[in-house]
Amino acid sequence: MPELPEVETIRRALEKRVLGRRIAGISISREDYVRAGLSDISSLTGQVIQSVERRGKILAMHLSGEWALIHHLGMTGRILCVTSKEEAPFHTHVRISLDGGGMELRQWDPRRFGYIAVLRECGLVEFAPWTSLGADPFDVAAGEFLELLSGRSQPIKTFLLDQRRIAGLGNIYADESLFRARVHPARPARSLRPVEAQKLRREMRRVLREAIAAGGSTTNDYQKLDGTLGEFQHKHRVYRKAGRPCRNCGAVIQRMILGGRSTHFCPECQPLRP
Ligand SMILES: [Zn+2]
After folding, report:
1. Catalytic, out of 54, 55, 57, 237
2. Ligand 1 centroid to 248 CA: how many Å?
3. Across all residues in the chain, what is the average pLDDT?
4. Choice among 35, 261, 267, 268 that is catalytic
5. Total domain count for the chain?
6. Does residue 169 sit in the same domain as residue 127?
7. Catalytic annotation on 95?
């Protein structure tokens, strides 16, 4: 699933490729892929893409006529920028043609947990998937992070995945952040001492920054805007490494299920009782 680094990689590429370009038309092959604003699709024709914003794992393209186009990539989604001549593969649900170059943005998503939404800028504040998101990992201050953890009895891994608290982490970067911070994923969030919480916040930001620099992680379907793969999967230390030796200490990486999610950790580097 595309997480913060993958979506941020796409956002930055969109900024380079489509800012200032005019939407020549949108075609939708599956109406149920449009979460909101299906009847407003035609209003977007002729509008100029003015900025591309990310919150958590969601992208918003802000358009000239006070409209916004929201993209969520779900589990298997891709946004690709291709020439219009290129044949659209099966599972391409959205095609946005751009003027001046025969170029097209396409959203491809075989499992269809993603969506697009067409909203008036003023309606964005009422769109719950956008407004219910918690703090961005790069914006959350040290004191605020500690405050978020306090009183939360859920496992820290589950806490990190809750988009209403911290927005943008999924399974890969939650596991990698906890490993780097040497925090066992099953520890109650509130049990982290301030020094551990600060280390976790620091390592979370560090791993996200490194992953963005590497263009994200391609573990399944994710591709960059130009169709190439991310590189950060080669830098994972615990995610999907169960049974292999820890690169810090040589102990065998373990896998457990927490909150229904597969979780990877080193039992030596991340003791349950520190
Ligand atoms: Zn270890």
Report:
1. 57
2. 5
3. 96
4. 261
5. 2
6. no
7. no
User: For position 75, which CATH number holds?
Assistant: 3.20.190.10
Q: What are 33-89's pLDDT values in tens digits?
A: 999 999 999 999 999 999 999 999 999 999 999 999 999 999 999 999 999 999 999
Where a domain ends, among 93, 108, 131?
Answer: 131
Report pLDDT for 19.
Answer: 96
Does residue 273 fall inside a structural domain? no
Cα of 195 from ligand 1 centre, angstroms:
20
80: CA distance to ligand 1 center in Å? 38
Q: Is residue 33 part of a domain?
A: yes
* pLDDT of 273 higher than 90: no
Q: pTM score > 0.90 for this model?
A: yes
147 is known as an active-site residue: no
Is 57 assigned a catalytic role? yes
146 and 168 share a domain? yes
Distance from Cα 268 to the centre of ligand 1, integer Å: 5
SS (H, E, C) the chain: CCCHHHHHHHHHHHHHHHCCCEEEEEEECCHHHEEECHHHHHHHCCCEEEEEEEECCEEEEEECCCEEEEEECCCCCEEEEEECCCCCCCCEEEEEEECCCCEEEEEECCCCCCEEEEEEHHHHHHCHHHHCCCECCCCCCHHHHHHHHCCCCCEHHHHHHCCCCECCCCHHHHHHHHHHHCCCCCCEHHHCCHHHHHHHHHHHHHHHHHHHHCCCCCCCCCCCCCCCCCCHHHHCCCCCCCCCECCCCCCECEEEEECCEEEEECCCCCCCCC
